[in-house]
Amino acid sequence: MSQQRKNIVLNRRAVVARILRDRGTALAVTSLGNPTFDVAAAGDSPQNFYLWGAMGGAVMVGLGLAQAQPQRRVLVFVGDGEMMMGLGSLATAAVQQVRNLGVVVIDNEHYAETGMQPAHAGRGVDITAIARAAGFAEGRTVHTETELEGAVDLLLQGAGPVLATIKVTTDPAPTALPPRDGPFLRSRMREHLLGEAAHR
Ligand SMILES: Cc1ncc(C[n+]2csc(CCOP(=O)(O)OP(=O)(O)O)c2C)c(N)n1
Ligand SMILES: [Mg+2]
Known about the structure:
CATH class: Alpha Beta
Mean pLDDT: 96
Distance between the termini: 53 Å
Strand content: 15-25%
Strand order of the largest sheet: 2-1-3-4-8-7
Order of helices and strands: HEHEHEHHEEEHEHEH
Largest sheet: 6 strands, parallel
Bound molecules: thiamine diphosphate, magnesium ion
Number of strands: 8
CATH superfamily: Thiamin diphosphate (ThDP)-binding fold, Pyr/PP domains
Structural class: alpha/beta
CATH architecture: 3-Layer(aba) Sandwich
Shape: globular
Radius of gyration: 16 Å
Low-confidence stretches: none
């Protein structure tokens, strides 16, 4: 465990629940594994779209959704490993200037899902700086509850694309499984957004 990790206190489930408490009509896209469980634990909803695979693709899915639904805020919850796998998507989101997109990196500096192997973020790679360099409107790294409060406003109200990397502990969290049927999840969100038109 690195020296730096000793300063990490935030719990991922509490962080995600805090952000979603104020979500209103915001849509959520989640990357595979733990970010999906975090969002499900805060309450399953037709406003949520969980990716059960497709590692590296979550920001691109959120980007497409944000472009299709410009009146809605779209939050993408990703693990640090997922975000590293899809770094190019940060450049695309920046170039597309998606004002309604917020990316939340749940950064435990490890690949928790596959056995807690150390990942890039704990070895000097700064995901927030990468997002800024790609052209994100704003990027922040969050270590404390106070910083989290500011990040909630940024993620839900700030002119996007915006990104917050939230440093969280590696403490285990109980499993929280939302529906796993991809077509069902897709149709559920389409009906939520489009009503009857979803069936045309
Ligand atoms: C293309 C691909 N490579 C590897 C995996 C295996 N895998 C699944 S989850 C995961 C780690 C995810 O780490 P992170 O995004 O940081 O989430 P955490 O569990 O740490 O919250 C890996 C390597 C995969 N599913 N797909
Ligand atoms: Mg991780």
